[in-house]
Design brief:
Layout: H1 15-20, H2 26-29, H3 40-43, H4 62-65, E1 70-75, E2 81-86, H5 98-110, E3 117-122, H6 134-143, H7 146-150, E4 152-158, H8 162-170, H9 177-180, E5 183-186, H10 205-216, H11 243-249, H12 258-270, H13 284-295, H14 302-305, H15 308-320, H16 332-336, H17 346-355, H18 359-377, H19 379-382, H20 386-397, H21 407-422, H22 424-427
Parallel strand pairs: 2-3, 3-4, 4-5
Antiparallel strand pairs: 1-2
Helix pairs in contact: 5-6, 12-15, 15-20, 20-21
Length: 429
């Protein structure tokens, strides 16, 4: 939960009441095992350790990462990074080092707090056995300062219970009005579709089962709407369409899609000196309207809209909505395990991997990387170094075949992206 809610409970007369709140019934705890805890893409990875994907057993956060309590799930519909906290994956209190969990959460947020981000908290599964102690809440409150709060644009509490609602009511006097407006209750998973594509979230099986149970308990007349089915692509659709098909449609057989050319050309002219470029979200209405214009075959002129952040979000959204990531599923294992390649061989291996891409993927990647190198060349002004750009673009260049992205996979992907930017002159001669 956001640190705005983590107050010094030892000084609050309501502490005793909170300790008595019932979190979950025994029936609620008896859900099927979480079969989706690990993505298929990662279980197929070379050298995969079932206890902690991509983290060696002696890693300082091994015992935290293996539970997959905290995840990063790409970007939401507004171009903001999505951080997910899964309460149901927290083991009993005596089996989890909560201080280390807090440090792991801080380490995760440290990568993204300079950008706009969204926090999704799946509350189902928080029980009397695994709830953090009040001392942990006090510690968390002291650890999280303004930098973690400033750029969080929304906190979505999924499947809220009387416990969480009472908690917020009790602490209403100390929650700022501005932050209070960021808190949203989400009663059903289908409601998240307005915020993020649910298929990119690795939603735990107990949460999905609980959602089904809630739906089944309702009268037919009050059933919430299910997630809408995927509609067939429009004749001129460009978002969510394979690069190969976009190339075939192009009059000149251009390997680089028009969305990438339009956004990058505009950003090259207007965005190189904008501080925090690619870290800000854009007006959601304008994002949807721009996507619709592209999908309807219209020509889009970003120069007429004069909105750098809109163009930046459209570029990231286009990459994230590709049916297959730009770096392809075929290279997933090689990239996730790239850190095992000796440093003196990394450029050679990276060049070989990139050159194995389909032509349209290779040319689009080269076009993008060439532009991002221009962005980082102006990092003294725009604050976007190669490392910062890698954090933003890594998850938009590669993800697992089931759309899921575990936190432990993002580090290697971002590292590969950073090296690609650092060594672009050798990889793309």
């Amino acid at each position: 939960m956001s640190s705005e809610l983590l107050v010094d409970l030892s000084e609050d007369p309501a502490t005793a009441q909170l300790g008595q709140l019932k979190l979950a019934t025994i029936e609620d705890q008896q859900w099927p095992a979480d079969e989706s805890a690990l993505s298929k893409s990662e279980t197929d990875s070379q050298g995969y350790d079932p206890g902690s994907p991509h983290l060696p057993w002696d890693h300082p956060f091994y015992d935290i990462a293996r539970h997959q309590i905290i995840e990063v799930a790409g970007d939401d519909n507004f171009g903001r990074k999505v951080i997910v906290f899964n309460a149901c994956r927290m083991p009993p209190q005596h089996q989890l080092d909560h201080h280390k969990l807090l440090m792991y959460l801080k380490g995760t947020l440290d990568q993204y707090v300079e950008s706009d981000y969204t926090l999704i908290y799946f509350h189902h599964g928080l029980t009397s056995d695994n709830k953090p102690s009040l001392g942990w809440l006090r510690e968390a409150y002291r650890e999280f300062d303004r930098k973690y709060k400033k750029n969080i644009k929304a906190l979505y509490i999924v499947h809220p219970t009387m416990f969480i609602k009472t908690l917020l009511i009790l602490f209403k006097p100390i929650i700022s009005f501005k932050f209070g407006r960021k808190i949203n209750y989400v009663s059903y998973l289908s409601e998240l579709q307005d915020v993020v594509k649910c298929e990119q979230l690795l939603i735990p099986t107990p949460v999905k089962e609980y959602d089904k149970k809630l739906r089944a308990s309702m009268k037919p007349s009050s059933q919430p709407p299910m997630s809408p089915p995927h509609s067939p692509p429009l004749p001129n659709q460009v978002f969510g369409v394979p690069l190969q098909l976009l190339r075939q449609r192009s009059s000149g057989g251009d390997c680089v899609p028009v969305v990438m050319r339009d956004t990058i050309n505009f950003l090259s002219e207007q965005g190189l000196e904008i501080e925090g470029i690619f870290r800000r979200s854009a007006n959601v209405t304008l994002v949807k309207e721009t996507q619709q214009r592209y999908n309807s075959g219209e020509t889009v002129h970003f120069s007429e809209m004069e909105d750098v952040h809109l163009a930046a979000v459209i570029l990231k959204t286009f990459l994230r909505e590709l049916p297959e990531p730009l770096l392809t599923y075929k290279l997933y294992n090689d990239i996730v395990n790239f850190s095992s390649v000796p440093s003196d061989s990394q450029v050679t291996v990276m060049k070989r991997l990139v050159e194995s891409l389909p032509e349209e993927n290779y040319e689009s990647l080269r076009y993008l990387i060439t532009f991002l190198v221009q962005v980082s060349a102006n990092s003294e002004v725009n604050k976007m170094t190669n490392s910062n750009l890698a954090v933003v673009f890594g998850p938009n260049l590669l993800w697992g075949q089931d759309n899921a992205m575990t936190l432990s996979a993002i580090g290697p992907i971002n590292n590969f992206t950073r090296i690609l930017l650092d060594q672009h002159h050798l990889v793309f001669p």
